[in-house]
Amino acid sequence: MGKIALFVPRPEMTAIARNLLAEKPYGISEVKTVRTDLAVGEASLAAANGTTIIIARGLQASLIRESINVQVVEIVMTAQEMALLVKEAKRLTNKERPVISVIGFENMFSDMSYFNEIYDIELRRYLIPMGERIEDAARMALDEKPDAVIGGEVAVEMAKKDGIPAVFFTATEDSLRNAMENAMLLDRAMESEKNHAAQIDTLLDYSFNAIVRIAPNRKILSVNSRMCDILEDKEENLTGKNVQSVFPELSDESLRRIFDRGEEYVLLMQINKVRMITELVPVWSSGHVESAVMTSHRVREEGVTRSPIDRHTNNMLMPMASSHFNNIIQESPAMKRAVELGKLFATSPFPVLLEAEAGLHVRNFAQSMHNIGPRRGRPYVEGDCLTMTEDAQIDRFFRDGGLLDTAGDGTLTILNIDAADSRFFARLLPIFSRRRVKVICTSRIPVEELLQRRQIEEEAYTYLASLRIRIPPLRERPEDLEHYITLYFRRAYERQGRYHIMTKSAKEYLMGCLWPGNEVQVHVFAERLVLTSTRRSIDEISVRQVMDFFRHQEDSEAKPGSTSDMLPYIEQGSGSTQNQTHPLSYADKERGKICDALRRHGGNRQLTAKELGISTTTLWRRMQKYGIRASKQ
Predict the structure, then answer these.
(1) Any idea what the CATH number is for the domain that residue 373 is in?
(2) Per the CB 3.0–4.6 Å rule, which of 53, 107, 112, 562 could disulfide with 554?
(3) Measured between alpha carbons, how far is 316 from 69 in angstroms, rounded to an integer?
């Protein structure tokens, strides 16, 4: 067995480590509190004395790995440890929703994806790869004026100089114990590397699951016989191939999460027409992910029973779903994650809740879940609570021969379930528990509000909240918004037999808008824009002119649902504490500056241009761009 040393930057971490070693030695022969500037020297001395593995954290681990020929196991903060630090940082700010910056190296942290929602904060992560300067990341973070900082010695000292509250990365028993266990396992692996490789080969050959080993360069290292059977190919043909060429549903993001961040990953894939739950797990060595193991097993199909529609007649057409996930635009990480959850939750017999604002194509999402789940090929039925009275809802869904009976053992999608009353949920609860039919519900508001309003009881809430997917609105998906703007604009002019070009400035302006009606609003606005455009090139001025026309047309009536209400807008602060929504043509800071300057100078363009530091020609062009008309008073 080799010798293992533990280096930590703080005495309190040393004390925690010694307490752990009193319970279990972990094969560690030396524990030291080491300053970062002395870490390489201490590591060199330890290596000269026979140390083969050093446990360290962050910058110290990076410096030792680059300078000394020893194996390094890194101390990685657990999610629970980060949660405690976030709570402490939030307490120091004394704010309801503070901005908290986390500064450190990428490999120091576990997943913090949902911290914003869980702890009601705005978490900014400044995580740099090994080799870059932590000082630069800290300066970037501090220049953006966070309310608090979480970081190591360098970041904490810099934050204190700037007068910003700071919390030091103090590890607890969890991360130290994990690192010690990893070091102990690495030590064993180094002693019996050949035997370890033979054990992996045996696991591949005799597992009931389909297994693939993947190298960090995305090449396939080995494939077991089960996976070869599914792929209908030989191992020698598959070994060495890029894994994404064999499994195209493996995204770049999923592989980055495995190899760059060391996270486990689960998804539903179709492998050679076989639907399989696939889990990717990183294999760690020397503090790095040396490979990944992809394990896949078949999705269990639900037992087939005859649905009522089949019993009544074999000639009646069965309701079907037409949408698939590959038809849903998912360029943004947020939408990709929602689709991944949709694929996974589709395999469960329990009800699924889709929370989505108006205008999102939530129907397509629900149909896609049906078509990828074990009930595909069976009836798919939809009903919209928003289009029915409360009595009609119960009658339409639950009467003999109603939507529930029609769905049989397929899928029943209940749209806008937030419009249902407590009686409806009482009838629905036994359906949830029996799980004969797959139920997908959609809601425009969080299910917690339904519970607060007493529309649902706690048991129904538990069902709906457990498998819940939030479909992000377009304002949170800029990549998807750009795709929709381009797609619907092109479809509109092709449908009208025209040819238009949208300029970069026009698209950028539309990208800066909020779209409260989401995909549907983008679609109808693109249609309106093409129908009312008189020029081939549609620039920002053209867009604003279309906006102005409809806004002025409706301003005198100002009725809810008027054309001006349907325009996209940008949200900006007014003099009050509440944000106001303004039509697009009045939502520009530069426009506001020009208008204010013109008012101060009574419409005099020369004086206005002088104040703004621009020429009168430039002022005139910007007035045309923003639709500003001014006359001297």
Answers:
(1) 3.40.50.300
(2) 562
(3) 73
Closest of 275, 284, 281 to residue 294, by C-alpha: 281
Q: Which of 290, 69, 298, 105 is nearest to 197 (CA)?
A: 290
pLDDT of residue 579: 38
How many other C-beta atoms lie within 10 A of the C-beta of residue 591? Answer: 18
Residue 552: pLDDT above 70? no
Give 54's pLDDT tier (boundaries 50, 70, 90).
Answer: very high
Supply the CATH number for residue 615's domain. Answer: 1.10.10.60
- The answer to whether residues 630 and 600 touch, using CB atoms and an 8 Å cutoff, is no
Mark out the alpha helices in 28-152 (DSSP H runs): 39-48, 58-67, 79-93, 115-119, 134-143
254 in the same domain as 216:
yes
Query: How far, in Å, CA of 66 to CA of 59, rounded?
Result: 11
- State the number of CA atoms in the 13 A half-sphere of 256 facing the CB: 6
Count of H-run helices and E-run strands, the chain: 28, 22
Residue 577 has pLDDT above 60, yes or no: no
- Which residue, among 193, 422, 388, 145, has the nearest Cα to 290 in the 3D structure? 193
The neighbour count for residue 454, using CB atoms within 10 Å, is: 9
Do the bridges between strand 3-8 and strand 51-56 make them parallel or antiparallel, or are there none, so unpaired?
Answer: parallel
Domain's final residue, options 298, 328, 350: 298
Q: Which amino acid is at 300?
A: R
User: pTM higher than 0.90 for the full model?
Assistant: no
Based on the domain organization, do 333 and 456 belong to the same domain?
yes
Q: Hey, what's the torsion of the CAs at 510, 511, 514, 518, to 10 degrees?
A: 90
CATH code: domain of residue 534: 1.10.8.60
Which one of 472, 491, 511 terminates a domain? 472
Written as six digits, the tokens of 523 are: 């679609």
**Angstrom distance (rounded) from CA 241 to CA 245:** 7
* DSSP 8-state secondary structure symbol assigned to residue 616: H
Write out the two tokens for 109: 């942290």
The answer as to whether 181 is a domain residue is no
What's the average model confidence in pLDDT over 343-371?
91
Mean of the pLDDT values across residues 82-104? 91
Q: Is 184 a member of any domain?
A: no
Rounded to a whole number of angstroms, the distance between the first and last alpha carbons of the chain is 91
More confident residue, 568 or 289: 289
Residue type, 576: S
Averaged over 156-173, what is the pLDDT? 88
Task: Specify whether 263 is located in the same domain as 402.
Answer: no
Q: Is residue 183 part of a domain?
A: no
Cα–Cα distances in Å, from 115 out to 80, 83, 331, 442?
11, 8, 23, 25
Task: Check: CB of residue 86 under 8 Å from CB of residue 119.
Answer: yes
Are residue 417 and residue 563 in the same domain, yes or no? no
Q: Identify the domain containing residue 227 by its residue range.
A: 192-298
Distance CA 184, CA 581 (A): 60
> How far does CA 235 lie from the centroid of its chain?
35
Residue 212 lies in a domain: yes
Separation of alpha carbons 443 and 441, rounded Å:
7
- 465 and 529 in a single domain? The answer is no
Q: How far apart are CA 145 and CA 142, in angstroms?
A: 5
**Cα 566 from Cα 551, distance rounded (Å):** 10
> Beta-carbon neighbour count of residue 365 at 10 Å?
24
